[in-house]
Amino acid sequence: MSTTVKDRRTPRRPALDRSTAMALAADEYQRYADAVAALDADAWVRPTACTLWDVRQMTAHVVGMAEMAAGIREGARQRRIAGKDAAAKGIAFLDALTDVQVRERADHSPARLVEDVRGVGPRAVRGRRMVPGFLRRRDMGMPQEVQGVEESWTLGYLVDVILTRDTWMHRSDLAEATGTTMALTPGHDGVIVADVVAEWAGRHGRPYRLTLTGPAGGTWSSGDAGEELELDAVQFCRVLSGRGSGEGLLATAVPF
After folding, report:
1. Which of 109, 144, 233, 256 could share a disulfide with 241, CB 3.0–4.6 Å?
2. How many CA atoms lie within 13 A of 238 on its CB side?
3. What's the rounded Cα separation, in Å, for the pair 11 and 243?
């Protein structure tokens, strides 16, 4: 049995310390808000890598997911509706949840969504920060499928890591869809990318040498005579997320 399979049977925990995770969350919500605030009217209807959504719909999802994180009641409400929809339509719970978030904001204008992102960000960080340690250490109780294999996550992994990665990746989707430049800094994006690299390396468990270029990049290695890779840091993450095809070690998926 491989190390990767064993890891998937043990609930995955966040590698980032909590204070770093919450600082990244706060910065990422702000960066997403700044990015959409700078868009012109035409950009909001452009298609994204999330094939069911244009830019406006993707932003509606970002707002909805942040609202879910911001309050216990709102989170419970969204999950309740999504659970019913998933059962009725025979679809995955996550697909039903994101559909609820987008559907409920179908008539929200770009201007309103910009205001919503700015307003919900601090509340979402506060809600995520307030999740107590004993809950963060628990299995979230809903297996997640990664690369065709079900694995368990702790609630802390979802709250500290995945919710920030999701927003970050959608900011990358936004830049790609609109032809704009994604704002990147080593102190923020570089930390997110480094965490992704560490998880990727743990998931494949093989020797490697990786060079990622750009402001969020760096160099990592493990073992000898491993695969040598060099590519842009954001593109690396997009490939691992399933937004591009990868061979060899780049075929190892990491959830966002």
Report:
1. 256
2. 17
3. 25
